[in-house]
């Protein structure tokens, strides 16, 4: 791979928290309706600095890059907070459509329709690393079984 000359990384941190992008938001909506969902997204935003920002900034910084968080820009947060929750997400719609709806609609307007309809996939799942770990566990267990049989 060739070296990257970029010094700044734009992250999507804050979009899921403000636009009901996590599966727990769907569960909350089903149990407590729009009012519960609104309360949950406000709590998410309130604790984002203690849960994500420090860790993510350190990881990015360890790679010689500087992080930017556009969804946590004061004007973006203020705008999103001015909207009712049903304008930001519609969790009666299927997964991959209803969460972060306002962002998906903006993506369609910008000509990114194919990307707009992809369901969220967490980075550690999106990389398929968990699949590889599972395969390695199976191989390891098979090797252990073979070793035991050989010794018997």
UniProtKB/TrEMBL annotation:
Entry superkingdom: Eukaryota
Domain Asparagine synthetase positions: 32-110
GO molecular function: asparagine synthase (glutamine-hydrolyzing) activity
InterPro entries associated with the record: Asn_synthase, Asn_synthetase_domain, Rossmann-like_a/b/a_fold
Entry keyword annotation includes Amino-acid biosynthesis: yes
Keywords tagged on the record: Amino-acid biosynthesis, Asparagine biosynthesis, Glutamine amidotransferase
GO annotation, biological process: asparagine biosynthetic process
Pfam families in UniProt: Asn_synthase
PANTHER family xref list: ASPARAGINE SYNTHETASE DOMAIN-CONTAINING PROTEIN 1
Name listed for the protein in its UniProt record: Asparagine synthetase domain-containing protein 1
Organism, scientific name: Callithrix jacchus (White-tufted-ear marmoset)
Taxonomic classification: Eukaryota, Metazoa, Chordata, Craniata, Vertebrata
